[in-house]
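Q&A FORM
Asked by: J.P.
Topic: structure of DUF5675 domain-containing protein

PROVIDED:
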Amino acid sequence: MNERQRIKIIRVAQGKNSTLSHLYIGSFFCCYLLEDSIRTEKIQGLTCIPEGEYGLSLNPWAGMNARYAPKYPKLHQGMVEIIEIPNYSLVFIHIGNYHTQTAGCPLTGSYWQLLDGDYQVLHSAAAYKYVYPLLVEQIGLGNDRVMVENRF
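REPLIED BY: S.T.
REPLY: Here is the structure written out as tokens.
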């Protein structure tokens, strides 16, 4: 996949404290995403980003780079950051399994499960290693926008 295509986060289900999403580049399903709950009023670190269109960029200076650069030295070029979100900052697509690990960020997953009323994503690192270069490529091509929409 090397052509410029629309990047979308499509939210498909809600748990008690979690939201399950799909990440697409064009019509190609890339991975599952786990996010915090959808709320009308933001609660710091417990609310997913609102629906809308936002920018994407590579952030090489934020603190998460200290963990990802040594772990993925051939892959890592900076954290994929979703930018231009009103009242949000440092929103990264990253590894994690549980809504308690999101802090407002989407977590990658190869598959999902529903446990005790909340969604989890599993094999997160594998999904991240797969989707990260695809997103970096798209950002490099100038395809640096992501559309976030609720579909439930």
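FOLLOW-UP: The chain is about 15% helix and 40% strand.
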